[in-house]
Fold this protein.
Amino acid sequence: MKKKKKTKNKIQGNLSRSIIDILRNNSGKTYNYKQIASVLGVNDASSRNQIIKKLAQLAAKKEIQEVERGKFKIEGNKNYYTGVLDLTTKGYGYVMVEEFADDIFIAQKDLNAAFDGDTVEIYVYNRRRRKRSDGEITKILKRKRTEFVGTLQQKKDFGFVVIDDKSMYTDFFIAGNKLNGAENGDKVVVEFEEWPKKADSPYGKITRVLGTPGEHHTEIHSILAQYGLPHEFPEEVEEYANKIDTSINEKEISKRRDMRDVLTFTIDPKDAKDFDDALSFQKLENGNYEIGIHIADVSHYLQPGTILDEEAYDRATSVYLVDRVVPMLPEILSNNACSLRPKEEKFTFSAVFEIDDKANVKNQWFGRTVTYSDERFAYEEAQHIIETGTGTIPEDVSIRNHSYSVRGALVEAVVTLNRLAKKMRAGRMKDGAISFDKVEVKFNLNEENNPVGVFFKTAKDANKLIEEFMLLANRKVAEYIGKQSPKKTFVYRCHDEPDDQKLASLQTIVGRFGHKLNLKDRSTTTSSLNKLLEDVQGRKEQNMVDTLAIRTMSKAYYGVENIGHYGLAFDYYTHFTSPIRRYPDVMVHRLLQHYLDGAKSANEEEYEAKCHHSSEMENLATNAERDSIKYMQVKFMQDHENEEFLGVISGVTEWGIFVEIIENKCEGMIRLRDMNDDHYEFNADEFSVIGKRTGQSYTLGDEVYVKVKNADLVKRHLDFTLLGNREEVEAN
């Protein structure tokens, strides 16, 4: 009896949806119950009675309008909203709209040809009490992307492309005349053309053949193409860049502050090719120091409205993959004219500060300069000077392949700047800044770009020295503009407060390792976070805790409305120091000069749109960089398939356990279905899986031994076989 009632309710639920669909698709027209029945193709008395009842119910709930007795219509804009579709890997999705606190659920049958990230119009069905709102996509307003990466499955005179992106719920049909020379099994880029109403799959055309899946260049180009990132400059852009006058001429020098005689140097990674920042140092008669942060004057060469500027804006950022850099600017600028190379004069944009011995800023000056770099140091060389206090650089540290001596003035500059940087950093920490010194995973690559080793990069004093002075310049430039009255349009780097729920979840997880967080207020939260990050250094859970702590933070973004920077504890912050690789820094340079010249406030809407684009491109670049690291990790582990590794459980889900190998930080999954010694069930509260028969548990943070089961380069996925808990394996 109960089963029958449930079926009837389901029929009535479908009837509501069908009636609304008919009225919505014929907005403005009125229908009576007979016309609805005709459209639905029913003519029996029972169905007509259900329609009459349902029309009355929908009108009572004000979902439809009874314009005159027995005649109904739906208001044109009622229950229609706009939002962005977020698709899951299971084929359904959610749309966040401003008018609703919760996301609107969209079933796969109601996606109506929309893809992940599309801006869509949705119709929201009235929410029942204590239930989420369901919706249906009625119109695609803007496609986030029209190109996708996948593998061609060729038939006789047509083909299908199976898309790599896990959120894509359909393949693409490719007609024979649109294969563009692609062959069965090729990795390709397919462009969406249309999705006819009665077709099972969207129609597309192949625009580029990337190569054979699994091959190195194919996979790297696939990563770039997946995120719509370019891998080379258009010929006309290269030609334009090569014709730019990059000479250091007297006419331009005369317009600038000449700082060529002031001691100046760069500190960068040893393999860096573009040096976009330099420091100058000199003692003043009053005992204070004049310290200049000199940044490549990219905006001098990159003029608005040119094809070069349009290309740089479109890219918005350089992309740093494991084996290559995809630069924002052509090489003539990024590695030559704008690179502050040693023993060369360069045009720069500078922030110059008078700083006392306690690291307090006494005076500041911003403007265009011409500088000369006296020396170039790698971080390792500067670190050696800091640690020894001497200028003798040994061969094993030197980037010159031989030992050499640094003159005393440079040694004094590096040592003094380091001392001041430490005081500045201590002040930031006291003000509530959070110290994220996450370990970076790096690869030793051979000539074929195959990973032959893994090493870790940690920030030392030399890195932190540069970081502090770049932070100083960024903060002071933002303050200089942000505090002006009347308010002026500017580009800020914004970072909101963390989500309380995420912090509470982090507190629960780290509690399993004996750590505590105090979330009483901002001060206790930041100080206990810093203590946590300090306490886990060198411990098995460090990388996992570092990663989880970063994930609790809000995502930083560019915007014209200043909200401050939570992580740095700055009320004003911007990006001024890397215009070779970030377009927002170029915008900041232009705006700063604009206001130094006394001009009126720039157009806010224009810059907000540019900020939004820059934030989006930054996110895409970050995802591509992450994917390239994962690809290299999988490639590295391919050569270690029969070896045993000690790892730490870094994640637990209903379908498997994630394990991060301690010695190389490669992460893979042990699927629960492959754990044959018992039937394991997921316990979300305990962050563990527990054997039903034996009670054996595997919990977040446990150390386990694993072996590589499968390393899939195409899916960029590692599968592990579980060998057992550390204690059990080592005991045997």
Q: What stands out?
A: Confidence is low (pLDDT under 50) at residues 1-13. The CA atoms of residues 189 and 510 lie 43 Å apart.
